[in-house]
Amino acid sequence: MATTTIEWTEATWNPVTGCSKISAGCQHCYAERMARRLEAMGQPKYKNGFEVTLHPDVLSQPFAWRKPMMVFVNSMSDLFHEEIPVDFVLQVFQVMADARHHTFQVLTKRADRLVELDEKIAWPDNVWMGVTVEHDDYRHRLRSLKSCGAAVKFVSFEPLLGPIRDVDFGGIGWAIVGGESGPCARPMDPQWALDLRDACLQQSVPFFFKQWGGARKKKAGRLLDGREWNQLPTFQYAT
After folding, report:
1. Which of 25, 106, 141, 205 could form a disulfide with 134 if both were Cys (CB 3.0 to 4.6 A apart)?
2. Where are the domains of the chain?
């Protein structure tokens, strides 16, 4: 099992590794740092460093996990990266459809390709589809997300790099907010997070506050307005 410390999921599954920078949130990519480290350690899966690399040998991995779990897909890549062949993307979706005892969480910054492939995907009801909106400049990704056929749609405002106001969460089932962590982390203004929290409360959208971030992530903690926010979409594991 690929365990993880990501607060809003239970396991990760990486049929693809590697990516390329597309927007401001990519500047200090944690996955790139990790991939370079694993490459230096001689891990065969990361022999190409952070170049986009398909791993068909791990496509069947979710079937070996008998306990139903929430699984973050491609934590070390982006399933809608332009270098990933359409056929392989569809193979990943077929596995998710067949491993119905799990709930799969897919997150992309490439909302345009999500729209492009939407009609080719037979959306299983155990797949949550999300986009990252780290700055107001990228709120158009929300419109793309809303147009796709996923049963549950979510948005990750992480790393939150500026205020994003007047968000219409219609059709969105979950929101995650978090600051940037790691070396040279850019600070998050508390008001930016509170504004999004308040919008979620007003529109009855489950809200998850992941972290304040910073170079000392654990010390900064996860309290927002004096409490933890761990809300999740209402769902049932498929059978």
Report:
1. 25
2. 11-220
Q: For residue 224, which phi and psi values (nearest 5 degrees)?
A: -130, 120
Pairwise CA distance, residues 23 & 10, whole Å: 27
- What are the residues whose beta carbons fall under 8 Å from the beta carbon of 122, sequence distance 6 or more? 93, 97
**3 burial type by CB count under 10 A (0-12 exposed, 13-18 middle, 19+ buried):** exposed
d(CA 8, CA 131): 15
Q: pLDDT tens digits, residue range 9-37?
A: 999 999 999 999 999 999 999 999 999 99
Report the distance separating Cα 111 and Cα 98, nearest Å: 25
Q: The tokens 């994003």 sit on which residue? A: 164
Q: How many CA atoms lie within 13 A of 102 on its CB side?
A: 27
Q: Which residue has the tokens 């059709």?
A: 171
pLDDT tens digit sequence for 157-185? 999 999 999 999 999 999 999 999 988 99
Across 116-191, the runs of DSSP E, i.e. the strands, are 127-132, 152-157, 174-178
Residue 23, sorted as left (phi over 0), alpha (psi -120 to 50) or beta, turns out to be: beta
Q: What 3-state DSSP class applies to 40?
A: helix
